[in-house]
Amino acid sequence: MTGGVGAKLRELRKARGVTQRALAAEVGIHFSSLSNIENDKEPCGEGTIRRLAEALGADEDLLLGEAGHRAMPFRVLGHIAAGTPIEATEHVNTFDLSEQFDPRDHFMLRVRGDSMILDGINDGDLSVIRHAVSARNGQTVVAIVGDEEATLKRYSCSGSKVTLTPANPDLQPVTYHKRDVQIRGILVGIVRTAVR
Question: How far is CA 81 from the centre of its chain?
């Protein structure tokens, strides 16, 4: 299921074989409002989303947010020393990943493998990627090579050749013709999902 709330709602409604008029009547809104919601011309309140989800037999979280669930920011309680210990004080803030990385310009990919471990990118981590179709030498990119194979590697381009370099001494760089490499994004962050 792709797109915003409206697109998700329309996709669910059509999959259930329900007309706009029938669904609108069931949840107590005008069918023109439902049409506007589905076309992202009118905002949809949480109460309406709840009723729509219930009427369609769907999880309301599926209709909320680009990630398919309501975002709840993490609490940032203060600072922690990674060197000399510091005074333990609590200053509560929140951290919402979408405030740091706009979901319209970024996406996440779960890392599989150990080719980037020297850059602190481990198997199972979530990589935060900014949409891009070009890159500068030295940037870590999501590249599509050959027959739609995707990889996360350091990028270097010289003339008609592109070299994708792992950050693992056990692995070797691979060089491709420029036409055989498509850049899909640039690494801008890592979310560690397991502590080793």
Answer: 30
Tell me the pLDDT tens digit for each residue of 101-155.
777 788 888 888 899 999 999 988 888 888 899 999 999 999 988 777 889 999 9
| pTM listed for this prediction | 0.57
As annotated, the active-site residues are 115, 153
DSSP state of 178: G
180 in Cβ contact with 161 (< 8 Å)? no
Residue located via tokens 């999902």 = 193
Going along the chain from its start, the domains and CATH numbers come out as 5-63 (1.10.260.40), 106-191 (2.10.109.10)
What three-state secondary structure class fits 155?
Answer: strand
* Three-state SS letters, 97-146: HHHHCCCCCEEEEECCCCCCHHHCCCCCCEEEEEECCCCCCCCEEEEEEC
Q: How far is CA 63 from CA 6, 10, 31, 99, 151, in A?
A: 8, 10, 18, 20, 31
d(CA 5, CA 26) in angstroms, rounded, equals: 19
